[in-house]
Amino acid sequence: FSHSYVAALAPVLTVGWSKPSRTAHSPNPHSLLMAAPHDSTWVANTLLLSVHFLRDIPFQSICVHRLQCDATHGPTRWTSVLDRIDGVTPEQLISRRSTTMTNPQLRDSTARTIREKLPHGIPGYGADAMRFALAAVASVNREMAHFHEDRLLHCRNFCNKLWNIARFVLMHTAHQDVRTIAATPRYTLPDRWILSRLESIKASTGCDLDARRLDRMAQCLRAFTWQEFGNGYLELAKIVLVDTSASPARKRATLDTLIDVLGQTLQLLHPVIPHITAELWRKLASQCGRSVDAITWNTWPTPDAARLDHAAEADIEWLQRVIHALRHTRSALQLPPSQEFEIALKVGEADDRRRYRSFRIALSGLVNVRAIDCGSAIVHGRNSLVTWVGSAEFLLFFGSLIDSGAGIAYVDQQTRALTQKLDSLTRRLEDIDSLNRAPHNVVQHWRNDQARTTYRLDELHRRRQHLERRFSATDPE
User: Which residues pair with 62 in a beta bridge?
Assistant: First the structure.
């Protein structure tokens, strides 16, 4: 037999040579075959021999994955996957490569090349980081996927992030009776938001798995776990858990949400990160008592449309945009996080005003600002900076925390960005061909954006004049 025929006999030998089965249960354990582009002969032989000897089709679908190549050296032959999992030193690489070499000059040149390109060897990233990195580049649109070491580092950092998220949940549930879910949980707005986002992620993950798009599945789960669950919901949950005025029912709903979202996230990540998710599932099951079975024995999470809450998603998205704008302003003015300043909503729609009132405590805990009523600030005529989030206009009162020079520099930075945007919109609206090709609603959006940008530039000009007068009033000269 050739090599391909010998390899094709392996599935037949493992499930039984002379035991053909026409029952409802197939002797083959799986319905999906993962293969490389050059494995077509082996796939065909496996199919033919299984049908001939077992009277059974060994798989229903085939997923052809891409060939992984080193980013600088082409198809990787220097190192193996185990080297990036466990780590390897330059001496080990040289010893492995020079074992079968009989030419001393070739051995010396190989040793010099390895010491030059890998002076510190290859660090160990772990099996889960390797699997996740391979899944993230398993696109069907590329014949070869270039494999970078930086990608492995990012995936290892993600695995560490997942572990720290689980530690946070287990730490806050260690001394709580959370082995049964509350009968009528009093979910807060952040709870409804993360549960709604989880349902959307479960739906998209299922579609990606059915389409064999492991790359989209890995990227989607990474964004949800890191950004929305880890950096978004956990920060909001801390405010509830440390709030002494929060009711026990509210805290219990937050703990139930943490356990629920973490458990289902571990299940969704298990196909690409099997080892860490299995260990964290065991810890979560033993402490919270939700399921004592292994993670592979539980049913796959299915989306529940009843838990979708688009209104909660819109509210939290607004809050995240405000937090991003305020943190960007703090960073631009080089204010430390410990310095508190005041903000006020000057202009906004009804939803903006409602959200501003409901998120005052969250803004205080996440950005260290004090949300005040805008009317009193305008009456006293205080000097302030301004920032915009959508249609909402916020006034920022720093008092003596910054000098006028820093405020003027920040206003000039905003002015330059808005001037570039206004020039781009003006050129677009003066182009007759663009106006004729674009739909009417798009053109109207451009005009509204132009008017809004012009108003904001005028507002920045007034703010700069106020700061200049303040600077000249305090100048000792």
Answer: 33
Q: How many CA atoms lie within 13 A of 455 on its CB side?
A: 11
The average confidence (pLDDT) of the chain is: 80
Residue 313's closest CA among 394, 222, 195? 195
Question: Is the per-residue pLDDT at 116 higher than 50?
Answer: yes
**What does residue 313 show for φ and ψ, rounded to 5 degrees?**
-65, -40
Nearest CA-CA partner of 252 in 266, 240, 268, 244: 240
Q: Which amino acid is at 73?
A: H
Instruction: Residue 279: count other Cβ atoms within 10 Å of its Cβ.
Output: 15
What is the Cα Rg of the chain in Å? 30
> Per DSSP, what are the bridge partners of residue 344?
395
Contact call for residues 257 and 187 (beta carbons, < 8 A): yes
**Cβ–Cβ under 8 Å, residues 407 and 334:** no
Q: Beta-carbon neighbour count of residue 263 at 10 Å? A: 22
Kindly state the tokens that stand for 465: 């004049």
Q: Locate the DSSP E strands across 31-100.
A: 32-35, 61-64, 67-70, 74-75
Taking the mean position of all CA atoms in its chain, how far away is CA 298?
Answer: 25
Q: In what order do the strands lie in the sheet with 369-371?
A: 369-371, 341-347, 392-397, 385-389
**Residue 51's pLDDT band (cuts 50, 70, 90):** confident
Please report, for the chain, how many H helices and E strands are present, in that order. 19, 9
**Kind plus residue range of the DSSP H or E element containing 370:** strand 369-371
Identify the bridge partners of residue 386 per DSSP, sorted by sequence position: 395
Residues 280 and 162 sit within 8 Å (Cβ to Cβ)? yes
104 with 244: CB under 8 angstroms?
A: no
Q: Which of 313, 311, 281, 316 is nearest to 296 (CA)?
A: 281
For residues 347 and 393, give the distance between their C-alpha atoms in angstroms, rounded to a whole number. Answer: 5
- The burial class, CB within 10 Å (0-12 / 13-18 / 19+), for 25 is exposed
HEC string of 10-33 equals HHHHHHCCCCCCCCCCCCCCCCEE
pTM attached to this predicted model? 0.78
